[in-house]
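Inverse folding, one chain.
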């Protein structure tokens, strides 16, 4: 699924992740496709439970039990510009295999959604950073410690030589998140997956952390997958955007297109439900009508149909829509644009029918 911008660093195609539970099968990720390009930021957005974190964890094969990848591919190209055909399918690697372990931290690293669980409480920040650095680089203990101090200073932590010997609970939320980012970039990954990196922080610290990510991206040239339910953050940071609903991508495209010319009714609803730079002063936020269906009780056809303002009876509640290109790199999964076979719906065709 190439969408311009050269060869993707990573191409996720038709990814499905299931959690078989006693109560039933949770299709946490139900066919998601997207590309992330070198040095660029993909924003992943959608309401709680739509599978954003699960996609991030699936890429690194660190899914919580009993989650597993049941379909799809995750192609990683380590040198997309000079060797675009040299790709490894991460989905085909065993979670504990040597090649998969080599990818974690070194090629792809993750900033977790839960700030308190990111660091172990029983080891100092320094010991955890040094261990991560040493397991991927041939550094001596002293060299790894020096590099860890440099990283802490790089992410704006004052007194890094003292802070490195502290435990995570001794740090404020903002400093802990900076330390987490320092650890995540310690092996200069090609892709940083940042799962709600600023949600637990106050607004000022949030802005500082986003600035820091942008600076690091510029200096290190890494790609970022930024997972958030905050469209304001996406508008500020993302080059491309993937909108997810109930485990599926419903819209993917360049950030500007998505904000100025959203196509999927769910994207439009999200944009009007969240206060953002695009909300006019005094304009009221519209909550998205209806609630998210229960995971074991998905509606037939398009899963957004019970909440959709453009619902077409007999069409939207019948077959599932396909995820297809609209214009250039913009993809959408909606019967307003394609019929069930994937043929474009035009105004003319509509009039004929
Ligand atoms: N260990 C698990 N066992 C069973 N179901 C799970 C497990 N982890 C996640 N899920 C289910 O997978 C779906 C997707 O969850 P996920 O955490 O990926 O959503 P999210 O988009 O990251 O949500 P949030 O915005 O709240 O972080 C949800 O229905 C969730 O209940
Ligand atoms: Mg999440």
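Residues assigned per position:
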């Amino acid at each position: 699924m190439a969408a311009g911008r050269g060869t993707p660093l990573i191409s996720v195609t038709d990814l499905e992740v299931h959690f078989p539970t006693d109560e039933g099968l949770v299709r946490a990720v139900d066919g998601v496709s997207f590309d992330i390009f070198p040095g660029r930021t993909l924003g992943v957005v959608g309401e709680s439970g739509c599978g954003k974190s699960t996609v991030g964890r699936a890429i690194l094969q660190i899914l919580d039990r009993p989650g597993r990848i049941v379909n799809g591919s995750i192609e990683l190209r380590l040198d997309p510009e000079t060797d675009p055909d040299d790709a490894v399918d991460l989905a085909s690697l065993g979670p504990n295999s040597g090649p998969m372990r080599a990818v974690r931290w070194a090629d792809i690293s993750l900033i977790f959604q839960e700030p308190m669980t990111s660091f172990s409480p029983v080891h100092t920040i320094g010991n955890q950073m040094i261990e991560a650095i040493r397991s991927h680089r041939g550094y001596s203990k002293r060299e790894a410690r020096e590099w860890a101090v440099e990283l802490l200073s790089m992410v704006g932590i004052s007194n890094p030589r003292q802070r490195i010997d502290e435990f995570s609970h001794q740090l404020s939320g903002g400093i802990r998140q900076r330390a987490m980012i320092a650890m995540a970039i310690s092996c200069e990954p090609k892709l940083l997956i940042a799962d709600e990196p600023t949600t637990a922080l106050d607004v000022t610290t949030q802005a500082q952390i986003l600035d820091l990510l942008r600076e690091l991206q510029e200096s290190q040239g890494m790609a970022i997958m930024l997972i958030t339910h905050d469209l304001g953050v996406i508008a500020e940071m993302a080059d491309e955007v993937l909108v997810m609903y109930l485990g599926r991508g419903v819209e993917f495209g360049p950030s500007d297109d998505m904000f100025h010319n959203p196509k999927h009714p769910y994207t439009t609803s999200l944009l009007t439900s969240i206060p953002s730079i695009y909300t006019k002063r005094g304009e009221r936020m519209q909550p998205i009508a209806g609630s998210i269906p229960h995971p074991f009780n998905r509606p037939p056809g398009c899963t957004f149909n019970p909440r959709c303002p453009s619902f077409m009876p007999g069409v939207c509640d019948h077959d599932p829509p396909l995820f297809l290109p609209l214009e250039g790199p913009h993809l959408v999964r909606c019967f307003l644009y394609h019929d069930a076979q994937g043929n474009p719906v035009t105004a003319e065709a509509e009039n004929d029918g």
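The chain has eleven helices and twelve strands. The pocket of magnesium ion (ligand 2) is lined by residues 52-53, 113, 195 (CB under 6 Å).
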